[in-house]
Design a protein that fits this description.
The chain has 16 helices and eleven strands. It is α/β, with parallel strands linked by helices and 449 residues long. It has three domains: 54 residues, 2-Layer Sandwich (Alpha-Beta Plaits), CATH 3.30.70; 269 residues, Rossmann fold (3-Layer(aba) Sandwich); 67 residues, Orthogonal Bundle (3-methyladenine DNA Glycosylase II, Chain A, domain 3), CATH 1.10.15.40. β2 and β3 form a beta hairpin. It is elongated, with a radius of gyration of 28 Å. It starts with 6 loop residues before the first strand and ends in a 22-residue tail after the last helix.
């Protein structure tokens, strides 16, 4: 299977340091021949390597604004986190008007899509008592993380469209009904806080095709909009989402919108991993729903945002407080009907068991035993000097044929010392024809004729 990834490596900038291999949550990076190498089947586009790389060698490839020329009618889909990038006194209508000034024909808030999904989640929680806890499908990094690292938990992911996809559905429906446009004439463009959302557009999970055309970097759009913001027309008529919909952009906002049941929110991918391990141990069955977000502070903490995550979270919280009870929300019946009418049905998430050593169970067991033997021979220091994240991953790479035992500098030193000792011993030995042997060698006197 081929994989699309928004996160890519700029080899010319890579210095071969091991910062990225230590932070990758799926052990998807190796350093080989002085350069980082991304294992495509394991990468979940979380953006951790982008944050940690001191040389800016990891980048997220997003769409360019010039692509608007490909369509007759273009709709911006700003993520809720986008509204947290601006000052606390900036009105959402002003931001929406600024997007129109930037060249979009229309705007549909992803926060409105969040209102729809919120209503559908409430219904789903009531009608589906098992399994528990259910897991939000909103964060594509978390969905892919479960596919790769926790494949037995895929049935816990709630099979509902994401707010991004629902906003695109609404945008296309409005374009058809109000302007008589065919879907092929309409471009729907998500303003993304993270690379994983673009990956979800190009290679969606649970669907064959996304309703979103492409995605622009939030930081890039923010930079373009700042000079236009003061002259932006009031876009109050464009704002349709409720305060709860905007709240989805920060950690805890999704659960706050749902409002009922035993709900838990966790942000930061390493915290998410720790929690999923608890789910795997069947210790959280008393919870109804998990809002899991890979980025610290939620989507406002994505690797493509412009504002500090904690400032953005505060801006968004104050915005929702200012909006209060404004916005109609979305009736459950209408939400369920809208999702049922979607051209693409959100199907179950399939596991991606790339961590298995072999497809054949017997060979996999044999390789696991081999891995344990190799691991026992390694020093267990997890230094990363070999280019693998830790000793266990090096042992796995050796078993898979991707590395050698001598890639470990300590094992290499042992072999060099042994070789040096052997060479030293050989250096003191001379062939019989080149000199006298030591007295008593082979039990005979060296002076004997």
């Amino acid at each position: 299977m081929s994989y699309f990834h928004s996160v890519t490596l700029q080899r010319a900038k890579c210095k071969g340091c091991t910062n990225c291999i230590k932070r990758c949550p799926t052990e998807a990076i190796r350093v080989r021949e002085g350069k980082a190498h991304i294992l495509e089947e394991r990468c979940v586009d979380c953006g951790e390597c982008i944050r940690i790389c001191p040389n800016q060698a990891k980048v997220a490839v997003t769409d360019r604004l010039e692509r608007l020329e490909e369509f007759r009618y273009n709709v911006a889909l700003p993520a809720p986190a986008f509204f947290g990038q601006f000052g606390r006194d900036v009105d959402p209508g002003q931001v929406l008007g600024g997007l129109i000034n930037l060249g979009f024909d229309h705007v549909v808030e992803v926060a409105l899509g969040a209102d729809v999904v919120t209503a559908a989640i409430r219904r789903y929680l009531r009608e589906h008592p098992q399994p528990r806890p259910l897991i939000s499908s909103a964060c594509p990094t978390v969905v892919r993380l479960i596919q790769v690292r926790f494949p037995s938990l895929v049935d816990h992911i709630i099979p509902l469209h994401t707010p991004m996809d629902v906003a695109a559905l609404l945008a296309r429906r409005q374009a058809r009904e109000q302007h008589g446009l065919a879907d092929g004439d309409v471009g729907t463009w998500f303003i993304t806080p993270c690379p994983a959302k673009l990956t979800a557009v190009r290679q969606p999970v649970g669907m064959t095709l996304s309703e979103v055309t492409g995605a622009f970097s939030m930081a890039e759009i923010y930079g373009m909009m700042l000079p236009l913001l003061a002259q932006a027309p009031e876009g109050g008529e464009l704002q349709q989402a409720s305060a709860h919909g905007f709240g989805w952009g920060r950690a805890g906002g999704e659960n706050q919108a749902i409002g009922a049941g035993a709900l838990l929110s966790v942000d930061g991918i390493h915290n998410v991993i720790a929690l999923l391990e608890e789910v795997l141990r069947d210790r959280l069955g008393d919870l109804d729903y998990l809002e899991l977000q890979a980025c610290v502070a939620g989507c406002v903490g994505g690797s493509l945002v412009a504002e500090n995550p904690f400032v953005g979270r505060t801006n968004l919280r104050m915005l929702t407080e200012r909006l209060g009870a404004t916005g109609p929300g979305f009736p459950e019946e209408a939400a369920v009907r809208l999702l049922a009418e979607a051209p693409q049905v959100r199907g179950p998430v399939e596991p991606r068991p790339v961590m298995r050593l072999d497809e054949d169970p017997a060979r996999a067991i044999s390789k696991t035993e081999q891995l344990e033997r190799v691991l026992e021979s390694l020093p267990g220091l997890d230094c990363g000097s070999c280019g693998s994240p830790h000793c266990r991953s090096l042992a796995e790479d050796i078993v898979r044929g991707r590395a050698f035992e001598t890639d470990c500098v300590f094992k290499l030193r042992e072999q060099v010392h042994a070789l040096a000792a052997e060479m030293l011993e050989l250096a003191h030995r001379l062939p019989p024809a080149m000199g006298q042997r030591d007295e008593g060698e082979d039990g005979a006197d060296s002076n004997e004729a």
